[in-house]
């Protein structure tokens, strides 16, 4: 299927801003397809309504919509062995520099500034840098004020679960319909290896007793959310040798209690972060170990595989972080919310999504009907919009898809260091990129030079820029069909 080339860059760049303004000023819908749905056939309409613009709860939406976190909740009631309080919460963030902590009023200013400038913004999350439910007054005050200013932004909370049952009713009252609980164990003996202590009901608990209380509160919180129809995602940190096999049990427990998604994330462990695991040499899993566990979990609670382990002050599409553009010193003291850019973006993106979904199902149908039983791992350089639209040398991550007789599925991403630095690249950086692409069969990008292409080939990885600006699934379907003996051009005609 041929399709108009609309990348996220073009949707948000200068050329597109004219279209946005024209559309916003026309007062009418620019879309030619008002009223028709982009909902996939296998998703319940009520669920689709909740997830269709949430970049974390819908893999499809993450190509188009952005989240932002405001770091209003620094206090925490749990100690995790993968966390150092000097850094962001590792539940929902990559340990890094300390966040700019915000008061609720500062947070509201920041949300308005981002909403005025980032048309993809759809979700406001509070993910620390401590625990959003333990530091509840600040979380609640922030949500209440943001909703008054920007009523159509979705509210999202991430928590370790210990204080969650105390606030489920208030979350429901505030229409928070997306909650994440980090659950790393359902066996307190395993939990004691992850949590040295918790602070609960005015006292500190340690060891197995601490883990048992945490486990009971997490299960209670999950059941309460499910009973109220609030969508719950479970984040689990995969810690090799500690809970990796145990996460199969965790997946069963949370599925039974109504979890909507299970997101298994790799432990990030580095001595420089000063965490217990970092300092004691506990390693994280590699990409293939992650994939192997996720593959074993298929058939249980539905998996999220597109998490980017973002910071507690992240801003932008998943995989990008524009937080540094919106530090407090860059935000005016007085701000008025302007809905124009966000509304115009939504209208235009609706057409693009519909077109992509049609192309996607055509490509998946073709892959399913080819006689080949093989599986192909494809790494895609993309800036968003569901298209092959990034240069190999500019990529900071590759999205990984698996094409197989069951279809084309997003299975994860590989972070890399940007190889091209304006016309030249370090060999050592390229070596790192190639190492990160271990197990990949084909790389798709909009442009690649002969040097990296040859070195990828030496490592057994084919790279092509022949599908630049195509939809990702269309390109993968064509390659899969061609490799299965169906002529590529016939396949994509
Ligand atoms: Fe933020 Fe989390 Fe809400 Fe998303 S993040 S509070 S559900 S809006 Fe998303 Fe980031 Fe992964 Fe979290 S990619 S770490 S899953
Ligand atoms: Fe750190 Fe978050 Fe664990 Fe608290 S819940 S110790 S902030 S990772």
Automatic annotation (TrEMBL):
Family to which the UniProt record says this protein belongs: Belongs to the radical SAM superfamily. NifB family.
UniProt keyword terms in alphabetical order: 4Fe-4S, Iron, Iron-sulfur, Lyase, Metal-binding, Nitrogen fixation, S-adenosyl-L-methionine
PROSITE patterns registered for this protein in UniProt: MOAA_NIFB_PQQE, RADICAL_SAM
Source organism of the structure: Mesorhizobium ventifaucium
GO molecular function, one term: lyase activity
Domain Radical SAM core span(s) in chain numbering: 62-311
Function description: Involved in the biosynthesis of the iron-molybdenum cofactor (FeMo-co or M-cluster) found in the dinitrogenase enzyme of the nitrogenase complex in nitrogen-fixing microorganisms. NifB catalyzes the crucial step of radical SAM-dependent carbide insertion that occurs concomitant with the insertion of a 9th sulfur and the rearrangement/coupling of two [4Fe-4S] clusters into a [8Fe-9S-C] cluster, the precursor to the M-cluster.
SUPFAM superfamilies xref list: Nitrogenase accessory factor-like, Radical SAM enzymes
Pathway given in the UniProt record: Cofactor biosynthesis; Fe-Mo cofactor biosynthesis
Superkingdom of source: Bacteria
Signal sequence bounds: none
UniProt-recorded name of the protein: FeMo cofactor biosynthesis protein NifB
Cofactor: [4Fe-4S] cluster
Keyword Lyase belongs to the record: yes
């Amino acid at each position: 299927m041929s399709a108009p080339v609309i990348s996220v860059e073009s949707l948000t760049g200068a050329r597109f801003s004219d279209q946005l303004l024209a559309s916003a000023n026309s007062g009418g819908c620019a879309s030619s397809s008002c009223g028709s749905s982009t909902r996939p056939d296998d998703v319940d309409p009520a669920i689709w309504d909740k997830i269709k613009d949430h970049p974390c709860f819908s893999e499809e939406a993450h190509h188009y919509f952005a989240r932002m976190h405001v770091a209003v909740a620094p206090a925490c009631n749990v100690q995790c062995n993968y966390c150092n309080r000097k850094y962001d919460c590792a539940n929902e963030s990559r340990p890094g520099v300390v966040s700019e902590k915000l008061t609720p009023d500062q947070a509201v200013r920041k949300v308005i500034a981002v909403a005025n400038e980032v048309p993809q913004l759809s979700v406001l999350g509070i993910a620390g840098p401590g625990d959003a439910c333990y530091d509840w007054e600040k979380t609640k005050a922030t949500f209440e004020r943001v909703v008054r200013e920007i009523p159509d932004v979705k509210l999202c909370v991430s928590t370790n679960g210990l204080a969650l049952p105390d606030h489920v009713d208030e979350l429901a009252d505030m229409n928070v319909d997306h909650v994440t609980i980090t659950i790393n164990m359902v066996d307190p003996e395993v939990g004691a290896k992850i949590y040295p202590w918790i602070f609960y009901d005015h006292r500190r608990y340690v060891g197995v007793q601490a883990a048992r209380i945490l486990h009971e509160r997490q299960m209670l919180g999950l059941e309460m959310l499910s009973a109220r129809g609030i969508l719950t995602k479970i984040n689990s940190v995969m810690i090799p040798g500690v809970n990796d096999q145990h996460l199969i049990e965790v997946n069963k427990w949370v599925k039974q209690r109504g979890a909507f998604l299970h997101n298994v994330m790799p432990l990030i462990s580095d001595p420089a972060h000063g965490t217990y695991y970092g300092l004691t040499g506990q390693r994280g899993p590699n990409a293939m170990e992650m994939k192997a566990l996720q593959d074993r979990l298929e058939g249980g609670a539905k998996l999220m595989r597109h998490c980017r382990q973002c910071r507690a002050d992240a801003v932008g599409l998943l995989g990008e972080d524009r937080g540094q553009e919106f530090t407090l010193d860059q935000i005016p003291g007085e701000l008025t919310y302007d809905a124009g850019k966000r509304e115009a973006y939504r209208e235009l993106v609706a057409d693009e999504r519909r077109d992509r979904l049609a192309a996607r199902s055509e490509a998946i149908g073709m892959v399913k009907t080819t006689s080949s039983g093989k599986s192909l791992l494809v790494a895609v350089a993309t800036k968003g919009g569901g298209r092959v639209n990034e240069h190999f040398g500019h990529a900071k991550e590759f999205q990984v898809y698996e094409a197989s007789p069951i279809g084309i599925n997003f299975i994860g991403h590989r972070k890399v260091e940007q190889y091209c630095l304006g016309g030249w690249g370090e060999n050592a950086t390229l070596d790192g990129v190639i190492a990160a692409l271990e197990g990949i069969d084909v790389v798709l990008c909009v442009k690649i030079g002969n040097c990296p292409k040859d070195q990828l080939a030496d490592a057994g990885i084919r790279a092509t820029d022949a599908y630049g600006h195509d939809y990702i699934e269309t390109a993968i379907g064509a390659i899969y069909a061609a490799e299965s003996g169906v002529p590529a051009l016939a396949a994509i005609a």
